[in-house]
Amino acid sequence: MLSKKRSRQQQGKPPQTKEKNSYFTPQNVIAIAAALIALLGVWLTHNTYKLTAEQFNLAFEQNENENKAVWISKVDSKDERITFISNSDHIVMQRAFIYFPEPFTDSNREILFPNFELPTSVLTMDVKEYLNSKFTREKGKALVAEGNIPFALQSYYISKGNSYSIQSVYHLRYIATLGERDNDFPTFEIQGFWFDHHLDVNEDPQEALKKVWVNGEYRADYTGLEN
After folding, report:
1. Which of 20, 95, 105, 130 is 20 to 30 A from residue 34's alpha carbon, by CA?
2. Each residue of 28-72: pLDDT tens digit?
3. Is the dihedral of CA 174, 99, 196, 208 positive or negative?
4. How many angstroms separate the CA atoms of 91 and 93, rounded?
């Protein structure tokens, strides 16, 4: 009787089943996959934008540098003049003004149009006077002096069909032989000029020259007579 009662009680209980994992249903798996795909899309969009911005900045900087004028010199010692020549085929000078520091300001002027030449006869006299004031002559001895005179150049030019203006610092290089008497210069030669750096468009050229000529504030890698 007891066994029959127990069997009846067991029969009255509902059948026990294993508990299923409700997290990994097909619906949840699809939702998780969709979320991951969305996150991947956001990540790809961000990195694509970052790459595009970097490419744009690089292209802009490259184009800006290509349109920055740097002039090189052609010296005519016989006619005492220097011609300003572009370092690029697509850059053409339209107008330019040159500024020297004291005591060479007599040569401050507009570069001669249309060949863009600077007469150097006045500048040569000023440099000789400057050398006379700096060196003491000795009988029976000759001195060789070589150096650089900074100047600022404001130039207006065309590049690839667009007009630009720029201010830059250059250095005029000379070499001279000083005889044993004042004003005795067996040889004097202006060898040309070399580019130093660009200035801000609003910077005062005379103030910039003072930093170089008076205060000696050359750029960090300036080593003296040689660039």
Report:
1. 20
2. 556 666 667 766 665 656 555 555 656 545 544 555 668 889 999
3. positive
4. 7
Task: Specify which residues 145 forms β-bridges with.
Answer: 176
55/71 Cα distance (integer angstroms): 29
User: Could you tell me which of 91, 88, 81 has the C-alpha nearest to residue 156?
Assistant: 91
Polymer length of the chain: 227
Q: Name the residue with tokens 């630009």.
A: 164
Q: Is the pLDDT of residue 24 over 90?
A: no
CA distance 79 to 100: 21
6-7-10-15 Cα dihedral, nearest 10 degrees:
170
**170 CB contacts (<8 Å, ≥6 apart)?**
71, 150, 151, 152, 153, 193, 194, 195, 196
Mean pLDDT of the 67-78 span = 93
pLDDT digit string (tens) for 86-142?
988 999 999 999 999 989 999 999 999 999 999 999 999 999 999 988 888 888 888
Kind and range of the H or E run holding 148: strand 143-159
The rounded distance, in Å, linking the Cα atoms of 106 and 102 is 9
Backbone angles phi, psi at 25, to 5 degrees: -80, 160
Question: Distance between CA atoms of 212 and 172, rounded to whole angstroms?
Answer: 13
Q: In 3D, which of 65, 96, 113 has the Cα closest to residue 193?
A: 96
Strands (DSSP E) contained in 34-113 are 71-76, 81-86, 91-99, 109-110
Structure tokens at 49: 């934008």
